[in-house]
Amino acid sequence: MTATEILRKEVKQYIDKADDKSLRMVKAMLKVEQEEDMDSLEEESWDDLPKELQLLIENGIKEGEEGKVIPYEEVKKKYGQWFRK
Hints:
Structural class: mainly alpha
Order of helices and strands: HHHH
Number of strands: 0
Number of helices: 4
């Protein structure tokens, strides 16, 4: 068991026994953390991506618009071992 898994298990035990006030505080902390994560994602822009990645994305979009795609079902058949069951 990893350290994160152990910590998660311990926190769940505290949560199961927590009173209303404590639960509201934890919820507020998690909400703020989630909002901060979203804010940091919004700060990233196209220009921050490496040029190579920009080109790959642009080429992928162009190929998709031109219909040069492989249907999902076909990919799933060919590479089924990579999909979760």
